[in-house]
Amino acid sequence: MGVRRCRGEHMRGWVIPPPREPVKGEEEFRRERKEKVASLTRKGYLRSERIREALLKVPREDFIPRLYRDYAYEEVPLPLPGEEATISCPHSYPLFYEPLGLDRGHRFLEVGLGSGYGTALAREIVGEKGLVLAMEIDPVTLAFAENNLRRTGYHDVVLVQGDGGLGHREGAPYDRICMTAACDQIPPPLLDQLEAGGRLIAPIEEGGVQNLVVLEKGAKGLERKVICQVLYISLRGRYGKGG
Questions:
Q1: Which of the following is catalytic: 39, 88, 115, 234?
Q2: What is the pLDDT of residue 69?
Q3: 138 domain-assigned
Q4: Is residue 236 part of a domain?
Q5: 48 tagged catalytic
Q6: pTM over 0.85
């Protein structure tokens, strides 16, 4: 299939709104959340009912630093505590989770925790019988995300500080793996920890661009599908640049 160009997620090239004291209330955020979900549905990003329900339930504004809280549902990445850390635009979550086919009961590994918002969405999607394990290499970003998740009631997600490119063998195998940082090639440990029939999604740097790629682990090897072009920060750790 051809490459569909999607909006990028890195801070470079975006006009970031100025920090300000938040003034919006709960009702206004609830209205904006519903409007955003309706917009994502109209634009074709959102099809799964479980992902739709998760987006309606999880309060994105509670996963954003206070001075950027009022911009929660605008299509712009926002800065987070930590090294080059951001929370991606609202559309990027169904952009990743829809082709990944994330669903009830899945064992899910998230590489790159960010604010914890995507982790909370995944927890709602996989349900009580699923597992969500999220890894973050930056301790400052991890602490911010952990506080957000605990404060909003997500006590049963597993958070691990470490090099996400190495995965986490204690929780393997995983039905679905999501990488939110770009790499030249998928780290071999993640492919090893992916269940047969499972899927992995990641931004891959190739030919001077980043392609959002889904890999499915079949009996005859890996089936590859390009979703669109994106722009994400580079993976850190052993399989990152300079690793």
A1: 88
A2: 98
A3: yes
A4: no
A5: no
A6: yes
